[in-house]
Amino acid sequence: MGAPAPVGDDRLVVAHGLGGAQDLPIPPELAIVGATAALAVSFTVLAVAWRRPRYADPAAGRPAPAWLQRLVESTAFTWLARLVGLFFFGWAAFAAVLGQDLLTNPFFGMVYVLLWVGLVPASLLLGPFWKAISPVRTVNLAFAKLAGSDPDTGLRRYPERLGYWPAALGLFAFVWLELVYPYSTELGPVRLWFALYVAAMLVGGAVFGSTFYARADPFEVYSTMVARMSVWGWRDRTGASGIAAADGRDGTARELVVRSPLANLDRTPPRPGLVAVVAVLFGSTAYDSFRDASAWLQLTQSLDRTLAIALNNLVLLAFCVVVGALLAAATAAYPAEGHPRRALPGLFAHSVVPIIVGYVVAHYLSYLVQTGQQTVILMSDPLSNGSDLLGTGDWSVNYWLAYHPTFLAVTKVLAVVVGHVLGVVAAHERSIQVLPRRHQLTGQLPLLVVMVAFTAGGLYLLFAA
């Protein structure tokens, strides 16, 4: 992600490269050893005390207050969320089309900070946030109403074999734009990327209906996946269950419930492309730290610019491929009852979601809090002409996190460790559901080794950035 760069009035704007070591006054060796020990202890405790599935009951959860369910299912609430999404989209388009090509243009912060990073806490707290506010869903709904068609069905059935592959490609396209494209802070290319995104989403929604957004919209798939770590879920009267209406409504009477995030996570559908999605998200976050390491910076700065760009492209791709390959190899090491080996990576891919969330917190917490505030300030001046259209132009950024480096360091390390521990728990639950009894513990060892490697490598990169 981009580190803030100072401008003349002491404000911050989005540029590239978020540092890490300067606000982590904890010995990296201590953090890595402690995190590895935490994973080993967690696995040992699970092996002894957790021998039966705990999240297999689809009716699990406590009913939410009736007034809350009425609120979230009301037409007024639904359209309020849609209007929020349309306002965000419209304001970003206003700044992108009519604003100046300057780093102070709020379009960059709205895209790289509020949308990309802010999507994680919003989805953790509220459920599938992007689905609720998605401007492309709203525009598709409007077109369908004008045409007298059903926005949920489209013209053709979405091919099951595609699964989440379009979303994985879209996510990779976005992280490529953000992390390795040399003109990622120029208005033209970013504006073009989102124009192509909107066009693809509207065409796909018209052809395949709402299922297209649930499977192919990179931001909705990301948001819904993170939302599986929220406490909100739905269950219907027949016992079927899902997370916050993530897969759409089927007309069944539903009940809003509060339950363990791990129970929601366990219900992640193992569709094609799920491994690719988690590999892109995890691999790109790791690459974001790697590219800021001093040794890598020295190497790329010593090379010809074209060669350095090509090398960064290859390394980003390699990070994503390696994460996916390690996950696939570790989860397919042992046979499962009733499941071919090729299906096992998809069955276990959900266990990487807590790790992704942990790394997002570790890498982008201070970036979101501080540069996010700056973006809200800059949004009041979308044309960079000194206007204050939203009344936020005279706000100031609170740098509390920057002034408390120890708190920030502990929070970041804990985020990585807790994310991996929850990943181990999720993988253990899935192992005792699908692996033969004789392999329920040994079958987890390859994935545990991979998670230990992810932990050590992630913390090393966090400190090296």
TrEMBL record:
Protein name: Fenitrothion hydrolase
UniProtKB keywords: Membrane, Transmembrane, Transmembrane helix
Membrane-spanning ranges: 30-50, 79-98, 110-130, 162-181, 193-214, 310-334, 346-365, 402-425, 445-463
